[in-house]
Q: What sequence folds into this?
């Protein structure tokens, strides 16, 4: 990641505009995703960061239209640029339509947070990977089997032929995440959505999985949308970062600018709460005061204002800041940067 | 799989042995031995039985032996098919039970089949369309089925069927076919007679299984593997039938073993009300008459049928769930 990837200048492969996904619960409407904008460029990695409950996973599921009830996408566009150059708004497709199902697992694959529960324990691994190939390729049975075995070998699983006939409970967590990557990759998707794929794994396995994803990206020229709450992982894998707080984007820009000059007070607070090698071990780690508000009790104005170090009374608690460009690369939604 | 199978067979044999001991104890519970009872009944009808004859009867049935020898002899005779003599019917127990054992098995198997074919689809529908009008209707009838006693439904239904179609839904055979040799016509007649008791016997179990299928499936539908399947591009119907339904069926299968004793004991009252020739009806008569050999045999067979049913459901469970099948290897 020493230089800027060429893909960042290309037309985005996925462009999310004003996405709003709401949950219609008995207690009221929860605006889990509330006007989110970001682009994913071909061959690069966009990282979405945020605390639990900020809407990052729902954003990812919204792209594939697999948000569970009572969640529903109520507004926005998800523009997907096909290999042919044609751009389609995925939200024009019905969730259950053949067009949308061809995208799911075909053009855009997804891997998940808990590899142990993300497979069916009642079906062999071979059965589950074959399903993806059967849906998205025209290969014959034996060809599909060989291809699946090939992918298992590529993600670094020993004895792939034997593994095809085994049930998921015989795999370790790291192996299952590798297997899930193989299952997502075998259809040659143009975009991989990775929803906290390393969260449930120990640190050594995490590093291996991140390496694997980067290798897969290079070999297949694939875009990755990487969702995590772990800034360390972001610095490792992302080219660009989008920071979310309570369903909204608060900052976005290239990963270097994000770490060198975080603009939003929330981004700054997040970074100061990471332990550093240079602070003394006795020092107490700064943390962001307060906790995430309940989504039904959204603070007025900027949702972050009750926890913000730079809170300006009469401004932040009154109006909602817009996402504005502060320089060529970075966008921030904060009154500190708005002309008043 | 082999280890699993062998272990289950051993468990089943142990359970069957335990049931046989209990049956034997029950047979021997009444005061005095049954020869005393026999003499008393004979005396009441005016027949005099000499002490010699009584003694030879005691000798024949081994009543002078220690208890465990008696048990061993009784068990040996059972395994050879000699079930003893029913004083109430004045015929060997084997003759009395005969066809009725088969009728009971038919009725029980029919009820389980009915429960599965009705409860599983309705349960799936109720879970997938949670809180839809169809779900509420299924729930309503489910609780109705649980709440109304079988014998009441049986009487009402038998009357309604007779009143509207003129078909007498009691008994399992029409008068002409009872002793007739087996023929297609007799099987058809039996099938027609089986419908009502099977449905009634199955209502409570159906209601239970609908609720259980629904609850399990609702849990499973939220599991991450469903999201994985969805992200692959399967249709919603393919996803539901292949993954969560498979998971949700496990408890349904194991619960069948749990429901089985209720079906067999439930058939006692139902058999009495609808006059069905099952071992349940014989059982009630044997109990009221203190006919120990007959009631002992019925208890023994009811118990064994339940164990065999449970064994079958265990095998079925191992067949559908690799986690159970492979735990030993």
A:
């Amino acid at each position: 990641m020493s230089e800027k990837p060429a893909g960042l200048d290309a037309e985005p492969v996925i462009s999310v505009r004003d996405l709003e996904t709401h949950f219609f619960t008995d207690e009221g409407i929860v605006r889990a995703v509330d006007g989110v904008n970001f682009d994913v460029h071909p061959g690069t990695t966009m990282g979405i960061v945020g605390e639990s409950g900020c809407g990052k996973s729902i954003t990812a599921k919204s792209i594939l239209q697999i948000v569970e009830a009572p969640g529903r996408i109520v507004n926005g566009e998800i523009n997907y640029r096909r290999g042919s150059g044609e751009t389609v708004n995925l939200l024009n497709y019905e969730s259950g339509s053949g067009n949308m199902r061809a995208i799911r697992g075909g053009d855009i694959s997804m891997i998940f947070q808990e590899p142990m529960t993300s497979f069916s324990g009642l079906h062999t691994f071979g059965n589950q990977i074959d399903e993806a190939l059967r849906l998205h390729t025209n290969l014959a049975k034996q060809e599909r089997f060989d291809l699946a075995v090939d992918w298992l070998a590529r993600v670094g699983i020993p004895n792939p032929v034997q593994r095809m006939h085994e049930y998921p409970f015989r795999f370790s967590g790291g192996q299952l995440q590798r297997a899930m990557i193989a299952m997502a990759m075998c259809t040659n998707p143009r975009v991989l959505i990775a929803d906290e794929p390393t969260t449930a794994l120990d640190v050594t396995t995490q590093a291996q999985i991140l390496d694997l994803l980067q290798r897969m990206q290079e070999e297949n020229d694939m875009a990755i949308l990487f969702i995590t709450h772990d800034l360390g992982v972001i610095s490792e894998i992302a080219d660009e970062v989008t920071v979310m707080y309570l369903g909204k984007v608060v900052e976005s820009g290239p990963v270097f600018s994000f770490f060198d000059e975080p603009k939003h007070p929330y981004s700054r607070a997040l970074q100061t709460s990471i332990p550093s090698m240079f602070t003394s071990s006795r020092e107490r780690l700064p943390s962001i005061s307060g906790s995430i508000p309940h989504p039904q009790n959204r603070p007025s104005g900027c949702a972050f204002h009750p926890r913000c170090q730079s809170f300006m009374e009469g401004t932040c608690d009154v109006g909602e800041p817009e996402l504005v460009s502060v320089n060529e690369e970075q966008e921030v939604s904060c009154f500190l940067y708005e002309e008043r | 799989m082999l280890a699993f199978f062998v272990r289950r067979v051993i468990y089943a044999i142990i359970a069957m042995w335990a049931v046989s001991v209990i049956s034997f104890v029950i047979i021997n519970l009444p005061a005095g031995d049954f020869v005393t009872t026999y003499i008393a009944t004979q005396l009441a009808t005016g027949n005099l039985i000499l002490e010699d004859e009584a003694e030879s009867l005691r000798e024949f049935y081994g009543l002078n032996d220690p208890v465990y020898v008696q048990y061993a002899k009784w068990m040996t005779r059972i395994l050879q098919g000699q079930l003893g003599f029913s004083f109430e019917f004045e015929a060997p127990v084997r003759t009395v039970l005969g066809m009725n054992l088969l009728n009971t098995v038919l009725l029980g198997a029919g009820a389980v089949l009915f429960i599965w074919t009705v409860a599983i689809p309705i349960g799936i529908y109720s879970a997938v369309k949670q809180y839809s009008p169809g779900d509420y209707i299924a729930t309503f009838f489910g609780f109705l089925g649980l709440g109304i006693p079988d014998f009441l439904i049986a009487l009402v239904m038998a009357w309604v069927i007779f009143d509207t179609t003129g078909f007498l839904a009691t008994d399992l055979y029409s008068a002409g076919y009872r002793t007739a040799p087996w023929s297609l016509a007799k099987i058809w007649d039996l099938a027609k007679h089986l419908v009502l008791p099977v449905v009634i016997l199955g209502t409570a179990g159906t209601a239970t299984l609908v609720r259980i299928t629904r609850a399990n499936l609702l849990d499973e539908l939220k599991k991450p593997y469903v999201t994985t399947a969805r992200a692959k591009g399967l249709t919603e119907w393919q996803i539901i039938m292949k993954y969560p339904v498979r998971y949700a069926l496990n408890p349904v299968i194991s619960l069948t073993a749990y429901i089985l004793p209720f079906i067999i004991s439930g058939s006692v009252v139902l058999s009495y009300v609808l006059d069905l020739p099952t071992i349940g009806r014989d059982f009630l008569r044997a109990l009221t008459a203190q006919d120990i050999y007959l009631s002992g045999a019925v208890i023994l067979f009811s118990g064994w049928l339940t164990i065999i049913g449970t064994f079958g459901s265990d095998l079925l469970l191992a067949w559908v769930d690799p986690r159970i099948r492979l735990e030993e290897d």
Q: What stands out?
A: The first strand of chain B starts at residue 85 and ends at 86.
